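Usage

Read records sequentially. Each one opens with the input sequence:
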Amino acid sequence: MAHVNTVMGAIHPDELGPTATHEHIVWGPPGWEHDPEWWFHYPQVFAKCLAGLVEYRELGGRSIMCCSGIGLGRDVEFYRMLSKYSGVNIIVPTGFWAAAGIPNHFLGKSIDYLSDMFVGELTDGIGNTGVRPGFIKVGIGRTMTPGDEMLHRAAARAAKRAGVPVVSHGAWEALKVLEILGSEGMDLSRVIISHCSHGGAIDPVRDRKVASMGAWISYDSFTVTNTSAVTHYAHPDEKRAEAVKQMIDAGFMHRMLLSSDNNLFSLGWMRSSPYVGKATQADFLRSTPGKLRRIGISEEIFWKILTENPKQVMAIQ
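and closes with the structure output:
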């Protein structure tokens, strides 16, 4: 039977409801825990994350895909408590962000070693928690490196065995990503190309090619604007909205996902850091429909994309 793995167990895809498909409950760069300036107090961080998730649910959100993979702060026991008390389904990944973020221990491992490692988490659970990831997260840095290619090949092999989708961080190399995954025999309808709405990465021509190949386009940085975050991918939401409209007008609404790529808490960064975004997933639900409505995309379409499309790509058969 089709299902989606969440930190609280398997659910039917129809139970996902409106889903933000690229978010982070907590996120930190590899090694964050060794930074002398890091700040983490479980009760306070739990309270902050819980408040954000409760507000997200109150505004209509039901599920979140947390894309913090291995070494980036993934804490499934913490997430399980948050899911229990917020009522929000949380789906976590296996996989590494990119070769640049792999701990040295794994650098000399083979593609098949990494693939087996991913499959182990997907089938047996993460550590001794019993929590099974719902997807594989991999990516690239600014350009595709041999290490990034290795990760994508490992992800494709694992995804074929476990029946899960792959999220690839790296719209700027989208066609190369699809070439690699396709060469491993992966069904491209199980591939999400994330960050297609990052500042400097918007390319409607590329996105139409990706969608026409059957993969999913993820416009997942709404609310990360020049006034809300100091980061290289900050960008006016109006430009993201226009990209969404172009894809809808081209007939690809059925191959689009929407999200905000916000961290409810950023690990390894001081609370005063300007790099910590001010927006949350609740802000995404609060502000994005109006920005789309101004250019002719109804709120009904916004919620349809958020509700119908994730259950298509996330379902494990």
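Summary fields computed downstream for this record:
- Residues 17 and 307 are 5 Å apart (CA to CA).
- Residues 42-58 form the longest helix (17 residues).
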